[in-house]
Structure prediction request, 640 residues.
Amino acid sequence: MKLYYFSEMPHHEFPDEEGDKYPSLRLEFPNRFFDREKAAANYRRYLTEYEFADQAGFDGLMINEHHSTPSCVNVGVNMTAAVLARTTRRAKILLLGNILPIEDNPVRMAEQLAMADLISGGRVLSGFVRGVGVETWWSNTNPVHNRERFEECHDLILKCWTEPGPFRWEGRHYHFRHVNPWCLPLQKPHPPIWIPGTASPETAVWAGRRGYTYVPFLVPFEIARELFDYYRQGAAEVGRTVTADNLGFLICAVTAETKAKAIEAGRHFVWRMGPTLRAPTEYFAPVGMRSRAGTQFALRARPRSLATMSYQELLDGQFIVAGTPDEVIDRFARVQRELGVGHLLLEAQESRMDHPTTMRSIELMGAKVIPAVAAL
Amino acid sequence: MRPREETISIGGIGVHTWIGGQGDPLLVLHGAGGNRGWTRWLAQVAERFTVWAPTHPGFGRSGDADWMDGIDDLARFHLWFIDAAGLGRPHLLGHSIGGWTAAEMATMSPGSIARLVLVAPVGLKPETGEILDVFYYSPPQLLTMTVHDPKTVPEWDELYGRAPTPAEIEIATRNREMAARLTWKPYMHNPRLAHVLPRVANPTLIVWGREDRVVPVECGEQYRRHLPNARLTVLERCGHLPPIEHPDAFARLVLGFLGGDTRR
Prediction:
Protein backbone atom coordinates (compact mmCIF):
# COMPACT_ATOMS: atom_id res chain seq x y z
CA MET A 1 0.00 0.00 0.00
CA LYS A 2 1.28 3.45 -0.95
CA LEU A 3 1.20 6.42 1.39
CA TYR A 4 0.52 10.03 0.46
CA TYR A 5 1.24 13.15 2.48
CA PHE A 6 -1.43 15.86 2.55
CA SER A 7 -1.89 19.21 4.24
CA GLU A 8 -4.87 21.48 3.61
CA MET A 9 -2.58 24.46 4.23
CA PRO A 10 -4.85 25.79 6.99
CA HIS A 11 -4.88 29.39 8.13
CA HIS A 12 -5.88 28.97 11.76
CA GLU A 13 -4.39 32.31 12.74
CA PHE A 14 -7.32 34.03 14.43
CA PRO A 15 -9.02 33.81 17.81
CA ASP A 16 -11.57 30.99 17.71
CA GLU A 17 -14.13 33.11 19.52
CA GLU A 18 -14.16 35.47 16.52
CA GLY A 19 -14.95 32.61 14.15
CA ASP A 20 -17.71 31.41 16.48
CA LYS A 21 -19.63 34.64 15.89
CA TYR A 22 -20.46 33.67 12.31
CA PRO A 23 -22.76 30.98 10.90
CA SER A 24 -19.72 29.39 9.30
CA LEU A 25 -15.98 29.84 8.86
CA ARG A 26 -16.69 29.35 5.17
CA LEU A 27 -18.10 32.17 3.02
CA GLU A 28 -19.13 34.36 5.97
CA PHE A 29 -16.06 34.75 8.20
CA PRO A 30 -14.63 38.12 7.12
CA ASN A 31 -11.20 38.09 5.52
CA ARG A 32 -10.05 40.94 7.75
CA PHE A 33 -8.96 38.02 9.95
CA PHE A 34 -6.58 36.86 7.22
CA ASP A 35 -3.06 37.56 8.53
CA ARG A 36 -0.87 38.31 5.52
CA GLU A 37 2.47 38.01 7.32
CA LYS A 38 1.56 34.70 8.91
CA ALA A 39 0.17 33.42 5.63
CA ALA A 40 3.43 34.23 3.86
CA ALA A 41 5.37 32.31 6.49
CA ASN A 42 2.89 29.44 6.49
CA TYR A 43 3.04 28.89 2.74
CA ARG A 44 6.82 28.58 2.94
CA ARG A 45 6.49 26.25 5.92
CA TYR A 46 3.88 24.03 4.30
CA LEU A 47 5.94 23.73 1.12
CA THR A 48 9.00 22.79 3.19
CA GLU A 49 6.96 20.04 4.83
CA TYR A 50 5.87 18.74 1.43
CA GLU A 51 9.47 18.75 0.25
CA PHE A 52 10.54 16.87 3.37
CA ALA A 53 7.77 14.33 2.80
CA ASP A 54 9.23 13.75 -0.67
CA GLN A 55 12.68 13.17 0.83
CA ALA A 56 11.30 11.00 3.62
CA GLY A 57 9.90 8.50 1.16
CA PHE A 58 6.20 9.23 0.79
CA ASP A 59 4.90 7.76 -2.45
CA GLY A 60 2.90 10.86 -3.20
CA LEU A 61 2.16 14.42 -2.16
CA MET A 62 -1.51 15.23 -2.19
CA ILE A 63 -2.69 18.80 -2.66
CA ASN A 64 -6.20 20.22 -2.85
CA GLU A 65 -8.01 23.49 -3.33
CA HIS A 66 -10.72 25.42 -1.51
CA HIS A 67 -11.91 28.98 -1.46
CA SER A 68 -13.29 31.50 0.95
CA THR A 69 -12.30 29.48 4.02
CA PRO A 70 -9.46 29.47 6.55
CA SER A 71 -9.59 25.67 6.61
CA CYS A 72 -7.64 25.56 3.36
CA VAL A 73 -5.82 28.50 1.84
CA ASN A 74 -4.36 26.44 -0.99
CA VAL A 75 -6.41 28.46 -3.47
CA GLY A 76 -4.70 27.17 -6.60
CA VAL A 77 -3.92 23.50 -6.80
CA ASN A 78 -2.16 23.89 -10.14
CA MET A 79 0.08 26.63 -8.73
CA THR A 80 1.10 24.40 -5.85
CA ALA A 81 1.69 21.54 -8.27
CA ALA A 82 3.98 23.76 -10.31
CA VAL A 83 6.01 24.67 -7.24
CA LEU A 84 6.32 21.06 -6.07
CA ALA A 85 7.10 19.90 -9.58
CA ARG A 86 10.31 21.90 -9.34
CA THR A 87 11.20 21.54 -5.65
CA THR A 88 10.57 17.81 -5.19
CA ARG A 89 12.31 14.95 -6.93
CA ARG A 90 10.61 11.64 -6.49
CA ALA A 91 7.09 11.51 -5.12
CA LYS A 92 3.99 11.63 -7.29
CA ILE A 93 2.11 14.91 -7.15
CA LEU A 94 -1.53 14.08 -6.52
CA LEU A 95 -3.87 16.97 -7.28
CA LEU A 96 -7.14 16.02 -5.62
CA GLY A 97 -8.08 18.02 -7.11
CA ASN A 98 -9.15 20.49 -9.67
CA ILE A 99 -12.78 21.52 -9.17
CA LEU A 100 -14.11 20.96 -12.66
CA PRO A 101 -17.66 22.36 -12.46
CA ILE A 102 -16.43 25.80 -11.45
CA GLU A 103 -13.80 25.93 -14.20
CA ASP A 104 -14.65 28.17 -17.13
CA ASN A 105 -11.71 27.21 -19.32
CA PRO A 106 -10.97 23.48 -19.46
CA VAL A 107 -8.41 24.06 -22.22
CA ARG A 108 -6.32 26.25 -19.96
CA MET A 109 -6.62 23.58 -17.25
CA ALA A 110 -5.46 20.88 -19.65
CA GLU A 111 -2.47 23.05 -20.54
CA GLN A 112 -1.57 23.85 -16.93
CA LEU A 113 -1.75 20.22 -15.85
CA ALA A 114 0.35 19.23 -18.84
CA MET A 115 2.95 21.84 -17.94
CA ALA A 116 3.13 20.61 -14.34
CA ASP A 117 3.49 17.06 -15.63
CA LEU A 118 6.32 18.12 -17.95
CA ILE A 119 8.19 20.09 -15.28
CA SER A 120 7.81 17.27 -12.75
CA GLY A 121 9.10 14.64 -15.15
CA GLY A 122 5.74 12.91 -15.43
CA ARG A 123 4.80 12.75 -11.76
CA VAL A 124 1.33 14.29 -11.91
CA LEU A 125 -1.72 12.34 -10.76
CA SER A 126 -4.62 14.42 -11.94
CA GLY A 127 -7.59 14.36 -9.60
CA PHE A 128 -10.89 15.87 -10.67
CA VAL A 129 -13.55 16.81 -8.14
CA ARG A 130 -17.08 18.18 -8.17
CA GLY A 131 -16.27 20.39 -5.20
CA VAL A 132 -18.36 21.28 -2.20
CA GLY A 133 -21.14 23.83 -2.39
CA VAL A 134 -18.96 26.55 -0.92
CA GLU A 135 -16.96 26.67 -4.14
CA THR A 136 -20.19 26.92 -6.10
CA TRP A 137 -21.07 30.09 -4.19
CA TRP A 138 -17.52 31.38 -4.47
CA SER A 139 -17.44 30.94 -8.23
CA ASN A 140 -21.15 31.72 -8.70
CA THR A 141 -21.58 28.60 -10.81
CA ASN A 142 -25.13 27.33 -11.10
CA PRO A 143 -25.34 24.28 -8.81
CA VAL A 144 -27.93 22.58 -11.00
CA HIS A 145 -25.24 22.33 -13.69
CA ASN A 146 -22.63 20.85 -11.36
CA ARG A 147 -22.60 17.30 -12.68
CA GLU A 148 -23.11 18.28 -16.32
CA ARG A 149 -20.20 20.73 -16.13
CA PHE A 150 -18.02 18.20 -14.29
CA GLU A 151 -18.49 15.65 -17.05
CA GLU A 152 -18.18 18.07 -19.96
CA CYS A 153 -15.11 19.77 -18.50
CA HIS A 154 -13.57 16.33 -17.99
CA ASP A 155 -14.41 15.29 -21.56
CA LEU A 156 -12.82 18.39 -23.04
CA ILE A 157 -9.64 18.05 -20.96
CA LEU A 158 -9.33 14.42 -22.04
CA LYS A 159 -9.84 15.38 -25.65
CA CYS A 160 -7.12 18.05 -25.33
CA TRP A 161 -4.76 15.34 -24.08
CA THR A 162 -5.66 12.54 -26.44
CA GLU A 163 -6.80 13.93 -29.78
CA PRO A 164 -4.69 16.00 -32.12
CA GLY A 165 -5.65 19.64 -32.55
CA PRO A 166 -6.87 21.82 -33.86
CA PHE A 167 -10.47 20.92 -33.19
CA ARG A 168 -13.66 22.75 -32.31
CA TRP A 169 -15.71 22.21 -29.13
CA GLU A 170 -19.35 23.27 -29.06
CA GLY A 171 -20.86 21.66 -25.99
CA ARG A 172 -23.66 22.41 -23.57
CA HIS A 173 -21.54 24.49 -21.21
CA TYR A 174 -18.22 25.00 -22.99
CA HIS A 175 -17.59 26.55 -26.37
CA PHE A 176 -14.19 26.84 -28.02
CA ARG A 177 -13.76 27.53 -31.72
CA HIS A 178 -10.07 26.67 -31.83
CA VAL A 179 -8.56 24.06 -29.50
CA ASN A 180 -4.93 23.25 -30.19
CA PRO A 181 -2.94 23.28 -26.94
CA TRP A 182 0.79 23.59 -27.43
CA CYS A 183 1.49 21.88 -24.17
CA LEU A 184 0.78 18.18 -23.72
CA PRO A 185 1.53 15.98 -20.71
CA LEU A 186 4.71 13.93 -20.56
CA GLN A 187 2.78 10.84 -19.46
CA LYS A 188 1.06 9.07 -22.34
CA PRO A 189 -1.71 9.16 -23.08
CA HIS A 190 -2.22 11.40 -20.06
CA PRO A 191 -1.62 11.51 -16.29
CA PRO A 192 -3.63 8.97 -14.27
CA ILE A 193 -6.98 10.37 -13.17
CA TRP A 194 -8.19 10.17 -9.60
CA ILE A 195 -11.68 10.85 -8.28
CA PRO A 196 -12.64 11.38 -4.63
CA GLY A 197 -15.97 10.34 -3.19
CA THR A 198 -17.93 11.24 -0.12
CA ALA A 199 -21.53 10.51 -0.90
CA SER A 200 -22.36 10.28 -4.54
CA PRO A 201 -23.09 6.80 -5.91
CA GLU A 202 -23.19 8.26 -9.45
CA THR A 203 -19.61 9.46 -9.16
CA ALA A 204 -18.42 6.03 -7.99
CA VAL A 205 -20.12 4.30 -10.91
CA TRP A 206 -18.79 6.92 -13.33
CA ALA A 207 -15.21 6.49 -12.04
CA GLY A 208 -15.55 2.70 -12.16
CA ARG A 209 -16.58 2.74 -15.79
CA ARG A 210 -13.47 4.69 -16.66
CA GLY A 211 -11.00 2.84 -14.46
CA TYR A 212 -9.99 5.96 -12.55
CA THR A 213 -8.54 5.63 -9.06
CA TYR A 214 -11.39 6.21 -6.63
CA VAL A 215 -10.86 7.54 -3.10
CA PRO A 216 -13.58 7.95 -0.46
CA PHE A 217 -12.81 10.73 2.03
CA LEU A 218 -13.34 10.37 5.75
CA VAL A 219 -16.30 8.01 5.69
CA PRO A 220 -16.93 4.96 7.89
CA PHE A 221 -15.49 1.70 6.52
CA GLU A 222 -18.91 0.28 5.73
CA ILE A 223 -19.79 3.33 3.64
CA ALA A 224 -16.45 3.13 1.82
CA ARG A 225 -17.19 -0.52 1.03
CA GLU A 226 -20.59 0.44 -0.31
CA LEU A 227 -19.08 3.15 -2.51
CA PHE A 228 -16.48 0.63 -3.75
CA ASP A 229 -19.38 -1.65 -4.67
CA TYR A 230 -20.83 1.13 -6.83
CA TYR A 231 -17.37 1.55 -8.34
CA ARG A 232 -17.17 -2.18 -9.12
CA GLN A 233 -20.65 -2.01 -10.63
CA GLY A 234 -19.41 0.67 -13.05
CA ALA A 235 -16.29 -1.35 -13.82
CA ALA A 236 -18.35 -4.48 -14.45
CA GLU A 237 -20.53 -2.62 -16.93
CA VAL A 238 -17.52 -2.25 -19.21
CA GLY A 239 -15.85 -5.55 -18.31
CA ARG A 240 -13.02 -4.06 -16.29
CA THR A 241 -11.33 -5.83 -13.39
CA VAL A 242 -10.84 -3.80 -10.21
CA THR A 243 -7.53 -4.07 -8.40
CA ALA A 244 -6.17 -2.49 -5.22
CA ASP A 245 -4.45 0.07 -7.41
CA ASN A 246 -7.90 1.43 -8.40
CA LEU A 247 -8.91 2.13 -4.80
CA GLY A 248 -7.73 4.57 -2.16
CA PHE A 249 -8.89 5.94 1.16
CA LEU A 250 -8.27 9.15 3.07
CA ILE A 251 -7.85 9.56 6.82
CA CYS A 252 -6.14 11.94 9.21
CA ALA A 253 -2.91 10.60 10.73
CA VAL A 254 0.02 11.70 12.86
CA THR A 255 2.78 9.81 14.62
CA ALA A 256 5.31 10.64 17.34
CA GLU A 257 7.82 8.85 19.58
CA THR A 258 5.24 8.33 22.28
CA LYS A 259 1.55 7.67 22.22
CA ALA A 260 0.94 10.65 24.48
CA LYS A 261 2.67 13.03 22.09
CA ALA A 262 0.82 11.61 19.10
CA ILE A 263 -2.54 11.84 20.84
CA GLU A 264 -1.82 15.44 21.71
CA ALA A 265 -0.86 16.26 18.11
CA GLY A 266 -3.90 14.47 16.74
CA ARG A 267 -6.22 16.83 18.55
CA HIS A 268 -5.51 19.38 15.86
CA PHE A 269 -7.54 17.31 13.42
CA VAL A 270 -10.71 17.99 15.42
CA TRP A 271 -10.77 21.56 14.08
CA ARG A 272 -11.00 20.18 10.59
CA MET A 273 -13.94 17.94 11.50
CA GLY A 274 -15.82 20.44 13.64
CA PRO A 275 -15.53 24.20 13.31
CA THR A 276 -14.50 24.19 9.66
CA LEU A 277 -17.46 22.04 8.64
CA ARG A 278 -19.98 24.05 10.65
CA ALA A 279 -22.38 25.70 8.20
CA PRO A 280 -26.01 25.89 7.12
CA THR A 281 -26.95 23.08 4.72
CA GLU A 282 -27.21 25.48 1.79
CA TYR A 283 -23.49 26.40 1.99
CA PHE A 284 -22.27 22.85 1.42
CA ALA A 285 -25.20 21.54 -0.59
CA PRO A 286 -26.89 24.32 -2.52
CA VAL A 287 -30.11 23.41 -4.27
CA GLY A 288 -29.69 21.10 -7.23
CA MET A 289 -26.03 20.27 -6.67
CA ARG A 290 -26.73 16.76 -5.46
CA SER A 291 -29.06 14.28 -7.08
CA ARG A 292 -31.85 12.75 -4.99
CA ALA A 293 -29.80 9.51 -4.80
CA GLY A 294 -26.76 11.48 -3.66
CA THR A 295 -28.76 13.31 -1.01
CA GLN A 296 -30.21 10.09 0.34
CA PHE A 297 -26.82 8.37 0.35
CA ALA A 298 -25.25 11.35 2.13
CA LEU A 299 -27.81 11.04 4.92
CA ARG A 300 -26.93 7.39 5.35
CA ALA A 301 -23.19 7.91 4.97
CA ARG A 302 -23.23 10.48 7.72
CA PRO A 303 -25.80 9.38 10.27
CA ARG A 304 -23.80 11.64 12.57
CA SER A 305 -21.94 14.67 11.34
CA LEU A 306 -18.19 14.55 11.99
CA ALA A 307 -18.70 17.96 13.56
CA THR A 308 -20.65 16.45 16.44
CA MET A 309 -18.10 13.77 17.32
CA SER A 310 -15.64 14.00 20.19
CA TYR A 311 -11.93 13.46 19.64
CA GLN A 312 -12.21 10.01 21.16
CA GLU A 313 -15.10 9.13 18.86
CA LEU A 314 -13.12 10.30 15.86
CA LEU A 315 -10.21 8.10 16.98
CA ASP A 316 -12.49 5.13 17.60
CA GLY A 317 -14.15 5.60 14.22
CA GLN A 318 -10.78 5.50 12.44
CA PHE A 319 -11.28 9.00 11.06
CA ILE A 320 -8.14 10.02 12.93
CA VAL A 321 -5.12 7.82 13.58
CA ALA A 322 -2.65 9.05 16.21
CA GLY A 323 -0.01 6.82 17.75
CA THR A 324 3.52 5.55 17.78
CA PRO A 325 4.88 4.28 14.47
CA ASP A 326 4.04 0.68 15.44
CA GLU A 327 0.49 1.62 16.40
CA VAL A 328 0.06 3.58 13.21
CA ILE A 329 1.33 0.66 11.11
CA ASP A 330 -1.19 -1.54 12.85
CA ARG A 331 -4.06 0.86 12.08
CA PHE A 332 -3.02 1.29 8.46
CA ALA A 333 -2.83 -2.47 8.07
CA ARG A 334 -6.37 -2.66 9.37
CA VAL A 335 -7.52 -0.13 6.73
CA GLN A 336 -5.85 -2.25 4.09
CA ARG A 337 -7.48 -5.45 5.40
CA GLU A 338 -10.91 -3.87 5.71
CA LEU A 339 -10.96 -2.06 2.39
CA GLY A 340 -8.36 -3.68 0.14
CA VAL A 341 -7.06 -0.33 -1.02
CA GLY A 342 -3.72 0.28 -2.71
CA HIS A 343 -3.40 3.92 -1.72
CA LEU A 344 -3.75 5.53 1.68
CA LEU A 345 -3.94 9.31 1.74
CA LEU A 346 -2.89 10.88 5.01
CA GLU A 347 -4.14 14.27 6.00
CA ALA A 348 -1.06 14.72 8.13
CA GLN A 349 -1.09 18.32 9.29
CA GLU A 350 -3.95 20.47 10.49
CA SER A 351 -5.02 23.52 12.37
CA ARG A 352 -2.22 24.66 14.68
CA MET A 353 -0.11 21.51 14.57
CA ASP A 354 3.34 23.10 14.69
CA HIS A 355 6.24 22.70 12.31
CA PRO A 356 8.51 20.54 14.53
CA THR A 357 5.66 18.13 15.32
CA THR A 358 4.74 17.89 11.65
CA MET A 359 8.34 17.35 10.56
CA ARG A 360 8.93 14.70 13.21
CA SER A 361 5.79 12.86 12.15
CA ILE A 362 6.92 12.94 8.51
CA GLU A 363 10.35 11.69 9.54
CA LEU A 364 8.99 8.77 11.57
CA MET A 365 6.54 7.87 8.82
CA GLY A 366 9.44 7.76 6.40
CA ALA A 367 11.77 5.78 8.65
CA LYS A 368 9.32 3.22 10.02
CA VAL A 369 5.79 3.37 8.69
CA ILE A 370 6.29 3.66 4.94
CA PRO A 371 8.66 0.66 4.65
CA ALA A 372 6.30 -1.49 6.72
CA VAL A 373 3.18 -0.43 4.86
CA ALA A 374 4.82 -0.83 1.45
CA ALA A 375 4.81 -4.59 2.05
CA LEU A 376 1.07 -4.73 2.72
CA MET B 1 -67.58 28.41 -10.88
CA ARG B 2 -65.29 25.63 -9.75
CA PRO B 3 -61.83 25.71 -11.29
CA ARG B 4 -60.56 22.73 -13.20
CA GLU B 5 -57.06 21.35 -13.66
CA GLU B 6 -55.71 20.42 -17.07
CA THR B 7 -52.40 19.31 -18.47
CA ILE B 8 -51.75 21.15 -21.71
CA SER B 9 -49.00 19.78 -23.92
CA ILE B 10 -46.70 22.40 -25.37
CA GLY B 11 -43.48 21.51 -27.16
CA GLY B 12 -43.57 18.07 -25.60
CA ILE B 13 -43.93 19.44 -22.07
CA GLY B 14 -47.08 18.75 -20.08
CA VAL B 15 -48.07 22.03 -18.43
CA HIS B 16 -50.25 21.58 -15.37
CA THR B 17 -52.77 24.43 -15.43
CA TRP B 18 -55.54 25.74 -13.19
CA ILE B 19 -58.40 27.15 -15.22
CA GLY B 20 -61.53 28.80 -13.87
CA GLY B 21 -63.85 31.78 -13.83
CA GLN B 22 -65.69 33.67 -16.49
CA GLY B 23 -64.94 36.57 -18.77
CA ASP B 24 -61.92 37.64 -20.72
CA PRO B 25 -58.80 35.54 -20.30
CA LEU B 26 -56.22 36.45 -17.69
CA LEU B 27 -52.93 34.57 -17.70
CA VAL B 28 -51.36 34.34 -14.23
CA LEU B 29 -47.67 33.43 -13.80
CA HIS B 30 -46.48 32.28 -10.40
CA GLY B 31 -43.27 33.06 -8.51
CA ALA B 32 -40.33 30.93 -7.44
CA GLY B 33 -42.36 29.38 -4.61
CA GLY B 34 -44.49 27.57 -7.16
CA ASN B 35 -48.14 27.51 -8.17
CA ARG B 36 -50.22 27.87 -5.01
CA GLY B 37 -53.40 26.93 -6.86
CA TRP B 38 -56.82 28.45 -6.41
CA THR B 39 -56.14 30.85 -3.57
CA ARG B 40 -58.50 33.50 -2.27
CA TRP B 41 -57.45 36.41 -4.48
CA LEU B 42 -57.60 34.24 -7.56
CA ALA B 43 -61.13 33.12 -6.77
CA GLN B 44 -62.18 36.76 -6.46
CA VAL B 45 -60.57 37.79 -9.73
CA ALA B 46 -62.11 34.74 -11.42
CA GLU B 47 -65.57 36.16 -10.80
CA ARG B 48 -64.91 38.57 -13.65
CA PHE B 49 -62.12 36.91 -15.66
CA THR B 50 -61.29 33.48 -16.96
CA VAL B 51 -58.09 32.75 -15.13
CA TRP B 52 -55.41 30.55 -16.66
CA ALA B 53 -52.72 29.74 -14.11
CA PRO B 54 -50.13 27.40 -15.59
CA THR B 55 -47.34 25.86 -13.56
CA HIS B 56 -44.02 26.73 -15.15
CA PRO B 57 -42.11 23.84 -16.75
CA GLY B 58 -39.82 22.23 -14.17
CA PHE B 59 -42.12 23.30 -11.32
CA GLY B 60 -44.84 21.44 -9.45
CA ARG B 61 -46.64 18.89 -11.58
CA SER B 62 -45.47 20.26 -14.94
CA GLY B 63 -42.93 18.41 -17.04
CA ASP B 64 -39.18 18.98 -17.07
CA ALA B 65 -37.44 21.58 -19.17
CA ASP B 66 -33.76 21.06 -18.42
CA TRP B 67 -32.89 22.84 -21.65
CA MET B 68 -34.06 26.16 -20.26
CA ASP B 69 -31.32 28.47 -19.10
CA GLY B 70 -33.04 31.69 -18.24
CA ILE B 71 -36.27 33.62 -17.79
CA ASP B 72 -36.22 34.61 -21.46
CA ASP B 73 -36.70 30.92 -22.31
CA LEU B 74 -39.67 30.79 -19.96
CA ALA B 75 -41.08 33.98 -21.52
CA ARG B 76 -40.94 32.52 -25.03
CA PHE B 77 -42.54 29.38 -23.68
CA HIS B 78 -45.49 31.23 -22.16
CA LEU B 79 -46.03 33.21 -25.37
CA TRP B 80 -46.36 29.80 -26.95
CA PHE B 81 -48.76 28.82 -24.17
CA ILE B 82 -50.99 31.79 -25.11
CA ASP B 83 -51.19 30.48 -28.67
CA ALA B 84 -51.54 26.83 -27.73
CA ALA B 85 -54.30 27.47 -25.22
CA GLY B 86 -56.08 29.77 -27.67
CA LEU B 87 -56.18 32.70 -25.26
CA GLY B 88 -56.19 35.33 -27.97
CA ARG B 89 -54.87 38.51 -26.41
CA PRO B 90 -55.13 37.92 -22.65
CA HIS B 91 -54.35 40.19 -19.76
CA LEU B 92 -51.14 39.07 -18.15
CA LEU B 93 -50.31 39.07 -14.44
CA GLY B 94 -47.06 37.78 -12.98
CA HIS B 95 -45.61 37.65 -9.49
CA SER B 96 -41.89 37.77 -8.63
CA ILE B 97 -40.09 35.61 -11.22
CA GLY B 98 -43.50 35.30 -12.90
CA GLY B 99 -43.56 39.10 -13.03
CA TRP B 100 -40.13 39.16 -14.59
CA THR B 101 -41.34 36.56 -17.11
CA ALA B 102 -44.39 38.70 -17.88
CA ALA B 103 -42.20 41.77 -18.44
CA GLU B 104 -39.92 39.82 -20.80
CA MET B 105 -42.97 38.51 -22.70
CA ALA B 106 -44.27 42.06 -23.09
CA THR B 107 -40.94 43.24 -24.52
CA MET B 108 -40.86 40.32 -26.96
CA SER B 109 -44.43 40.62 -28.18
CA PRO B 110 -46.40 43.51 -26.73
CA GLY B 111 -49.22 42.87 -29.19
CA SER B 112 -49.81 39.42 -27.72
CA ILE B 113 -51.16 40.77 -24.46
CA ALA B 114 -53.74 43.32 -23.35
CA ARG B 115 -53.05 44.79 -19.92
CA LEU B 116 -50.09 43.92 -17.77
CA VAL B 117 -49.89 43.50 -13.99
CA LEU B 118 -46.44 43.10 -12.46
CA VAL B 119 -46.41 42.07 -8.80
CA ALA B 120 -43.05 42.59 -7.06
CA PRO B 121 -41.22 41.38 -10.15
CA VAL B 122 -37.52 40.66 -10.11
CA GLY B 123 -35.67 41.22 -13.37
CA LEU B 124 -34.05 44.62 -12.82
CA LYS B 125 -30.93 45.18 -10.73
CA PRO B 126 -31.60 47.46 -7.77
CA GLU B 127 -29.63 50.70 -7.92
CA THR B 128 -28.83 50.85 -4.22
CA GLY B 129 -30.12 47.72 -2.44
CA GLU B 130 -29.85 44.04 -3.33
CA ILE B 131 -32.28 41.30 -4.20
CA LEU B 132 -32.28 38.77 -1.34
CA ASP B 133 -30.29 35.65 -2.22
CA VAL B 134 -33.16 33.24 -1.78
CA PHE B 135 -30.99 30.18 -2.43
CA TYR B 136 -28.66 31.01 0.44
CA TYR B 137 -31.39 30.43 3.04
CA SER B 138 -33.37 27.39 4.05
CA PRO B 139 -37.04 27.33 3.01
CA PRO B 140 -38.29 27.95 6.60
CA GLN B 141 -35.92 30.92 7.03
CA LEU B 142 -37.00 32.24 3.68
CA LEU B 143 -40.68 32.09 4.52
CA THR B 144 -40.21 34.39 7.51
CA MET B 145 -38.33 36.86 5.30
CA THR B 146 -40.89 36.73 2.51
CA VAL B 147 -43.98 37.98 4.32
CA HIS B 148 -44.27 41.07 6.47
CA ASP B 149 -46.35 39.54 9.27
CA PRO B 150 -47.57 35.94 9.17
CA LYS B 151 -50.33 36.78 11.66
CA THR B 152 -52.08 38.99 9.12
CA VAL B 153 -52.01 36.42 6.30
CA PRO B 154 -55.60 35.08 6.07
CA GLU B 155 -54.67 31.81 4.38
CA TRP B 156 -51.55 31.15 6.47
CA ASP B 157 -52.92 27.96 8.03
CA GLU B 158 -54.08 26.50 4.71
CA LEU B 159 -50.82 27.34 2.96
CA TYR B 160 -48.17 26.93 5.63
CA GLY B 161 -49.91 25.72 8.77
CA ARG B 162 -48.86 22.07 8.72
CA ALA B 163 -45.72 20.08 8.04
CA PRO B 164 -45.37 19.31 4.32
CA THR B 165 -45.85 15.74 3.07
CA PRO B 166 -42.93 13.97 1.34
CA ALA B 167 -44.62 14.65 -2.01
CA GLU B 168 -44.89 18.34 -1.15
CA ILE B 169 -41.23 18.43 -0.10
CA GLU B 170 -40.28 16.88 -3.42
CA ILE B 171 -42.28 19.53 -5.29
CA ALA B 172 -40.73 22.33 -3.21
CA THR B 173 -37.24 20.98 -3.97
CA ARG B 174 -38.07 20.74 -7.64
CA ASN B 175 -39.41 24.31 -7.63
CA ARG B 176 -36.23 25.56 -6.02
CA GLU B 177 -34.03 23.69 -8.48
CA MET B 178 -35.88 25.06 -11.47
CA ALA B 179 -35.82 28.57 -10.03
CA ALA B 180 -32.04 28.23 -9.61
CA ARG B 181 -31.73 26.95 -13.17
CA LEU B 182 -33.55 30.02 -14.48
CA THR B 183 -32.20 32.81 -12.28
CA TRP B 184 -28.76 31.89 -10.90
CA LYS B 185 -26.55 34.25 -12.91
CA PRO B 186 -26.87 37.15 -13.31
CA TYR B 187 -28.83 36.66 -10.12
CA MET B 188 -32.54 37.39 -10.58
CA HIS B 189 -32.07 40.05 -13.23
CA ASN B 190 -31.46 40.64 -16.91
CA PRO B 191 -29.02 43.51 -17.51
CA ARG B 192 -30.57 44.06 -20.97
CA LEU B 193 -34.21 44.24 -19.88
CA ALA B 194 -34.28 47.96 -19.04
CA HIS B 195 -33.21 48.78 -22.59
CA VAL B 196 -36.26 47.14 -24.13
CA LEU B 197 -38.96 47.89 -21.56
CA PRO B 198 -39.81 51.22 -23.28
CA ARG B 199 -41.25 49.17 -26.13
CA VAL B 200 -44.09 48.09 -23.84
CA ALA B 201 -46.85 50.67 -24.22
CA ASN B 202 -49.48 48.33 -22.74
CA PRO B 203 -51.27 49.80 -19.73
CA THR B 204 -49.36 48.39 -16.78
CA LEU B 205 -50.03 48.18 -13.06
CA ILE B 206 -47.05 47.54 -10.81
CA VAL B 207 -47.83 46.36 -7.27
CA TRP B 208 -45.31 46.20 -4.44
CA GLY B 209 -45.28 45.61 -0.70
CA ARG B 210 -43.72 48.47 1.23
CA GLU B 211 -41.89 45.97 3.50
CA ASP B 212 -40.71 43.67 0.71
CA ARG B 213 -37.41 42.22 2.00
CA VAL B 214 -36.85 40.07 -1.08
CA VAL B 215 -37.01 42.65 -3.87
CA PRO B 216 -36.59 46.29 -2.83
CA VAL B 217 -39.38 48.73 -3.72
CA GLU B 218 -36.85 50.80 -5.67
CA CYS B 219 -37.12 48.13 -8.39
CA GLY B 220 -40.80 49.07 -8.69
CA GLU B 221 -39.78 52.69 -9.25
CA GLN B 222 -37.39 51.52 -11.96
CA TYR B 223 -40.09 49.52 -13.73
CA ARG B 224 -42.41 52.52 -13.59
CA ARG B 225 -39.72 54.76 -15.08
CA HIS B 226 -38.87 52.41 -17.94
CA LEU B 227 -42.45 51.46 -18.86
CA PRO B 228 -44.18 54.32 -20.71
CA ASN B 229 -47.71 53.55 -19.54
CA ALA B 230 -47.29 52.21 -16.01
CA ARG B 231 -48.35 53.17 -12.52
CA LEU B 232 -46.98 51.83 -9.24
CA THR B 233 -49.11 51.02 -6.22
CA VAL B 234 -47.32 50.24 -2.97
CA LEU B 235 -49.26 48.33 -0.31
CA GLU B 236 -48.47 49.14 3.31
CA ARG B 237 -47.70 46.44 5.90
CA CYS B 238 -46.98 44.05 3.08
CA GLY B 239 -43.93 41.97 2.15
CA HIS B 240 -43.07 40.08 -1.02
CA LEU B 241 -46.41 38.25 -1.36
CA PRO B 242 -49.15 40.89 -1.86
CA PRO B 243 -51.66 38.42 -3.34
CA ILE B 244 -51.35 36.21 -0.25
CA GLU B 245 -50.75 38.84 2.41
CA HIS B 246 -53.59 41.15 1.34
CA PRO B 247 -55.76 39.02 -0.95
CA ASP B 248 -58.89 41.16 -0.83
CA ALA B 249 -57.16 44.49 -1.37
CA PHE B 250 -54.98 42.95 -4.04
CA ALA B 251 -57.94 41.45 -5.90
CA ARG B 252 -59.79 44.81 -5.79
CA LEU B 253 -56.69 46.54 -7.16
CA VAL B 254 -56.38 44.08 -10.01
CA LEU B 255 -60.08 44.14 -10.85
CA GLY B 256 -60.08 47.93 -10.79
CA PHE B 257 -57.13 48.11 -13.14
CA LEU B 258 -58.33 45.44 -15.56
CA GLY B 259 -61.71 47.14 -15.77
CA GLY B 260 -63.94 44.42 -14.47
CA ASP B 261 -66.12 42.83 -17.09
CA THR B 262 -66.02 45.68 -19.59
CA ARG B 263 -64.61 43.47 -22.30
CA ARG B 264 -66.94 40.56 -21.78
In short: Residues 143 and 289 of chain A are 5 Å apart (CA to CA). The two ends of chain A are 6 Å apart (CA to CA). The mean pLDDT of chain A is 96.
